[in-house]
Amino acid sequence: MQQQHFDLLLKGAMLIGVGPHHDSMARGVIGIRDKRIAWVGEEAPAGATATREMSLGGRIVSPGFINMHYHAGLNFVRGIAPDLGFAPSYTPGLPQASQLRPDEAAALSQLGALEALKAGCTTLVDSFVEADAIAAGMAELGGRLFLSPRLNDVDFAYVLAGKRRFDAERAARMLDSAEAFITRWQGSADGRVHTHLTAHAPDTCSPDFLGAIAALARRHDLKISTHLAQSQDEVDWVQARYACTPVGLLDSLGLLGVDLLAGHCIHVDENDLALIAASATQVVHIPLGNAVSGRFAPTNAMRAKAVALSLATDTMHGDMIEAMRWALAIGRIQQGCVSDDWQPADVLKMATRNGARALGMADQLGSISVGQLADLAIIDTRQAHLTPCIDALGTLVHNGTGRDVEHVIVAGELVVENHRSLRVDEAAVLARAKAATHAVWSRCEPALRPLPEAAFS
């Protein structure tokens, strides 16, 4: 029998998310060849050789996390926006993403993508302003991306004043720009960059614009992301304007379905849940982002109706390990107990396999399986807060953080090693993001400059 040769051989780690049933292995070996996982077992195949071997005793290897709803560049309001009650785009008293210049959006988005990648997020579904300007810097890091421009035909200046005003000319410009973005970026960076379309929300996109976004997505066979039922204000405004719920509005426009990635879904009723379940709409659960504003999505009711659930961090941080912990805890708060059907294995699936399914890539991503792309997060448990590590998955979900991720592999390539990016100068990334934050806050009215100069040094 011919001896196997691997590009990279990972030996001696605890493995989680293995195979179609997402099993765990107390000690395993992963062989990587030509960007893909070519071997998974308790031992390496007899006589196997490798270009590089990594001995990973005391580490956990997980499928790379798939962050299904992220705005990498919104970190310029980190530490402030969560205490003002709601999403930054709806919050007076904050500088707005629409005020960012292209180079500022690029600097901030690269920082956000770097943070997420170092926390083991190998795939990011991201939407933001100045999408053309941010794509190259995010791709440079080596992660897998689903990128979209932020699409809304409302003027956010009016939204901040509690009103809505839609602009047909703005909608037409955005659609043209979005199609050009798709043409320019789809399949770039050696296939790591994908595109999708983000219809911002039912209260910031007119029905005509939503329909046009859906038509463009169908033409290019793309997923659509949106914020759905994320606030009571959104529900009340849509009800008053269209005499239905936001979920009902999207259903009437033909947007519900397996290609819709619906973020939040907090304020939904029984009829909404029935529509979501029947249409196979993908709900993206954002547990920490919701909880910091005092709300949570009814995930137990969703699971009872077999709604497809994946996981995301949204804004201010990119730590999917923390998101798993919050998803587990909030589900148990809703149940009022610990149950056999809501365990760390369930939230790991939300953070990996379910996201891959929602993106139409279940045959490529989401588990440690032979034939899948080698997108992996390697977590170092040789630390006080992760010792003893009796059960790898339970220890990771209950005690781990993104800062425990030691190495990250995307398509078989080490892109983070020993907690550091191998592709960019991290100090330079941080410096550019600080400068961009200083610039956008400096353009605010004096009353909206709460940060000391030292914050940017």
UniProtKB/TrEMBL annotation:
Keywords, sorted A to Z: Hydrolase
Domain Amidohydrolase-related: residue ranges: 60-415
The UniProt record lists the keyword Cytoplasm: no
Presence of keyword Hydrolase: yes
Domain of life: Bacteria
Gene3D superfamilies tied to this protein: Metal-dependent hydrolases, Urease, subunit C, domain 1
Family, per entry: Belongs to the metallo-dependent hydrolases superfamily. ATZ/TRZ family.
Protein name: Amidohydrolase family protein
Protein species of origin: Uliginosibacterium sediminicola
